[in-house]
Amino acid sequence: MLAVVPPPVTVRVPSKVNLHLSVGDVRDDGFHELTTIFQALSLTDEVTVAASEEPVVEVYGEGAKSVPTDGDNLAMRAVRALAAHVGREDEADKVRVVLRKGIPVAGGMAGGSADAAATLVGLSALWKLEIGREELSHVAATLGSDVPFALYGGTALGTGRGEELVPVLSRHQFHWVLAFDQRGLSTPKVYGELDRLRADGDPPRVGSHAPVVEALSSGDPRQLALLLGNDLQAAAVSLRPGLRRTLRAGVNAGALAGTVSGSGPTCAFVCESAESALEVAAELAGAGVCRTTRVAHGPVPGARVVGGEDAPRPTTPPQVHA
Ligand SMILES: C[C@@](CO)(OP(=O)(O)O)[C@H](O)COP(=O)(O)OP(=O)(O)OC[C@H]1O[C@@H](n2ccc(N)nc2=O)[C@H](O)[C@@H]1O
Ligand SMILES: Nc1ncnc2c1ncn2[C@@H]1O[C@H](COP(=O)(O)OP(=O)(O)O)[C@@H](O)[C@H]1O
């Protein structure tokens, strides 16, 4: 008798922006203590997980050429982690993962983390595991500090190394413009640069996150705009000085305020409305300060199944690793 092959599962997963990112001391494990407010944005990746004879990663879309297609890919690491968690290690090699990327690679928007979270959700559905988000979130945290947030989405306060989450009430859809840079920035290098800047002097630190929580509950983008803050911004700008111009150009184009997203180099601008965001994105794209721009809104939900075999077809040639 032929074995029944389950149909592929497709999961959509959001990017994130840090509305507030306070970086504390380095811990004994090398991670920095964080207080951050994440918001999930409608700029997404789509991940299809399917049964396969051998492990395969295919990557299409934004930045596909710089994404590893071997076992180092965060999606494949997620397959191995979940397989080990449920005692199905021998099946970890029998999964094909197709990534359709919209999130810039090494852009400070947690694209790799998003793919890992989506893979956990997709593989749970493919293997029909009875496993809740909370349990998945423990597996997620072993893969990276930002991975649990991509499972939940919405708006959340993150503490610890960013993996301990509490939801934050956000009453409004906020409208964002994202300016992608020519190249990515390495997250560990940006944290290292902040340590260097702090050893040499005393770069300004963001204040308490409490006013940001209030602004989110009021739903007023003007109030939020005054409060965006990121301790990693000075380090990202130190490594990539051109970001100063990008941040200025977004505000000159009509955004309410801009911030470097996480470790950068993507700059995120909050705007008054969806219409204003479209205008800012067009003007910024023509200003010669970034590679390209996108509009997005947030908050949006975390990783969720959107389809099976009828998922959208890729539009760019794949990088395939067997
Ligand atoms: C900076 C942030 C802000 O949300 O996002 P990105 O800009 O990368 O998207 C995160 O802290 C990135 O989280 P993530 O990308 O999951 O990092 P991980 O894989 O856990 O860690 C990569 C490296 O970043 C540094 N790291 C990360 C988190 C943290 N709290 N302290 C750290 O010092 C460490 O050097 C670590 O080895
Ligand atoms: N599925 C993936 N998508 C993107 N990058 C990945 C993936 N798997 C591994 N990586 C590696 O992780 C690094 C960080 O990627 P990413 O998560 O996009 O950036 P950031 O940490 O700035 O948000 C990349 O430079 C890439 O080498």
Automatic annotation (TrEMBL):
Pfam families, alphabetized: GHMP_kinases_C (PF08544), GHMP_kinases_N (PF00288)
Active site (catalytic residues): K16, D146
EC id: 2.7.1.148
This protein's UniProt keywords: ATP-binding, Isoprene biosynthesis, Kinase, Nucleotide-binding, Transferase
Pathway assigned in UniProt: Isoprenoid biosynthesis; isopentenyl diphosphate biosynthesis via DXP pathway; isopentenyl diphosphate from 1-deoxy-D-xylulose 5-phosphate: step 3/6
GO biological process, one term: isopentenyl diphosphate biosynthetic process, methylerythritol 4-phosphate pathway
Spans annotated as Disordered: 300-322
SUPFAM superfamilies: GHMP Kinase, C-terminal domain (SSF55060), Ribosomal protein S5 domain 2-like (SSF54211)
Family the UniProt entry places it in: Belongs to the GHMP kinase family. IspE subfamily.
PANTHER family: 4-DIPHOSPHOCYTIDYL-2-C-METHYL-D-ERYTHRITOL KINASE, CHLOROPLASTIC
Its biological purpose: Catalyzes the phosphorylation of the position 2 hydroxy group of 4-diphosphocytidyl-2C-methyl-D-erythritol.
Identification of the protein by name: 4-diphosphocytidyl-2-C-methyl-D-erythritol kinase
Gene encoding the protein: ispE
